[in-house]
Amino acid sequence: MSAWLLPDHIADVLPSEARHIEELRRGLLDTARSYGYELIMPPMLEYLDSLLTGAGEALNLQTFKLVDQLSGRTLGLRADTTQQAARIDAHLLNRPGIARLCYCGPVLHTQPDRPRATREPLQFGAEIYGHAGMEADVEALALALDCLRGAGVKDFSVDLADVRIVRHLCAGVMVDAAVLQRVHAALAAKDATELAQLTKNFPAPAREGLLAILQLYGDEKVLKEAEKALKATPAVRQVLQNLQYLTEQFTGVNFTFDLADLRGYAYYSGTRFAAYVPQASDALVRGGRYDEVGAVFGRNRPAAGFSLDIKQLVAVVPERPLKAAIRAPWAHDAALHALIAQLRQAGETVVCTLPGQDDRVDEFRCNRKLAQVDGQWTVQAL
């Protein structure tokens, strides 16, 4: 086997793409900071029982595991950062009011989570803790959309759902967890035959409601249709009103709905959103409300947020032009060195051509050069 061969779905990131990713990372963090979100840096690995506790259990199969040589305990390499952010909010910060946290770092997956995905995403996310009202949902979505716009994403649509619809429909239904899990899978796959078989002994309102939501996807008309189709379950009405309220807070955004979408069901507790673009096979951003995420750390308080993979994002946004650079000769000249230092401190990129090398610079576009004219070093156009 060649020494340079990497594992499947693991890849080196070469200079041009790495530059683009880093520019996106900085822009996303600046956007989050403009909303008042503070940067945290959780560790790449933790004790497994901390990473997989509570809502983190859903990530068990996606988590790489190893043994800590110091303690003998099992460690996990994080597959998602939300659980760590919840631990920091609940256990370390323990603030009485609102906490706005953001993060950006690699996560590792044992399996790619979508076709052609990397197993080493660069995850950016933002979480707001401590507010149960819809204002937090609105802020999380607003920040997510501003992040996409800042990255240069255009023509995106936002799909909305709410896991409480299925919870309300199934409330009071006596069924074991395994059957309920199969119901969720049938809803996600829009498998009407399987769903009908699984719910044949459910109370009529629950069975009819679950079968109805398979067809409840599309534009804003879906909400009106849902009110009629699910009127036998009054608790659903407030959920639908919340979805309507969320859309009314934004202008110029194309909203769609899929009321049977249960991806992340064990993780989310309320409204969910996902942003799509035509050129990507899966959502660029996923987020919503997950109020129970901090409960296992002793602090069960409201939470909403989102995350995205910058490596996925960089593939669908326009390549950013290279910043023009300055080419300089290599010379033992104090005046030249002083000018180069001055230019670099001013934010310019100055690339020195080493002795015996040609003037080609692979990564940086040099449109100027340093030349000596009448004993003085000056910047000249190329």
Notes on the protein architecture:
Strands 1-5-6-12-11-10-7-9-8 form a 9-stranded mixed sheet, with helices on both faces. The longest helix has 20 residues, at 15-34. The mean pLDDT is 91. It starts with 14 loop residues before the first helix and ends with a strand. The protein has 382 residues and is of the alpha+beta class. Helix content is 34%, strand content 22%.
Quick rundown:
The chain is of the alpha+beta class and 382 residues long. Helix content is 34%, strand content 22%.
Largest sheet: 9 strands, mixed
Can you tell me the overall shape?
A: elongated
Q: Which sequence of strands runs across the widest sheet?
A: 1-5-6-12-11-10-7-9-8
Could you give the order of the helices and strands? HEEHEEHEEHEHHHHEHHEEEEHEHEEE
End-to-end Cα distance: 47 Å
Uncertain regions spanning at least 5 consecutive residues:
none
Task: Round the Cα radius of gyration to an integer and report it.
Answer: 26 Å
- With helices defined by DSSP (H or I, 4 residues minimum), what is the helix count? 12
Give the amount of beta strand, in percent. Answer: 15-25%
